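Note on ligand handling. Small-molecule inputs were canonicalized before submission; formal charges were left as drawn, and no protonation-state enumeration was performed. Where a ligand contained multiple stereocentres, the stereochemistry in the source SMILES was retained. For zinc ion, this procedure yielded the string shown in the input block below.
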Amino acid sequence: MSLSPEELKRYDRQIMLFGKEGQLKLKRTTICIIGVGGLGSPAAIYATAAGFGRVILVDKERVELTNLNRQILHWTSDIGEEKVVSALKKLTKLNPNVSIEVINEEIREDNVHEIIKEADIVLDCLDNWRTRLIVNKACVEERKILIHAGIRGLDGQLMVIVPGKTPCLYCVFGEIREEEGKFPVVGPTPAIMASLQVLEAIKLATGYGKPLLNKLLIFEGHHTSFSEIPIERRKNCPICGHFD
Ligand SMILES: [Zn+2]
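Structure output:
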């Protein structure tokens, strides 16, 4: 695998950071983005623009008018369209070097392994804990890196899960909490958190920089602050406790 003259030019500003080798590592990396909504839209744009070789998008929903304040891959003319199809149309125009694959399915316990099996890195761009914990368990079992983000209102959180090395979502958050259903949000909140998800993915794929490990990052938008909470693996975690 090599980089074409077009790619060398396209990625010029990031090759300045991590070299052609780093860019090739991105090209060899498959990233699976679960959820193509508020988080998944900007995450998919940045992952595609950065030149991950394969981007797999997973979502079952269709575009609705109330999505458009934050789900920036979907536009007014896409209302009623499948989100993965709406996303695919724009992303292939953004960067034809990237192989974009779409899976129009809802994540369940019986399909999650098949969906993530070819991914090197999985992004949790979901909006509910029931599905998140299914993805968390599967990523631990398949030893896939999982980058979690969650948002509400002006606040967000970020956590990187490297199975066997860092806590998993269950270690930190435990059993399924009450789902809120429809919650308030402004577009920049998921954009901030999704940008951080892709930044972590770029660092992990290229080896450039230092990933956020064993820390939960909290963003509070009301007064604009970031803080970190140290987190630890739970030895008795039913999901990842079996690792040494
Ligand atoms: Zn765990």
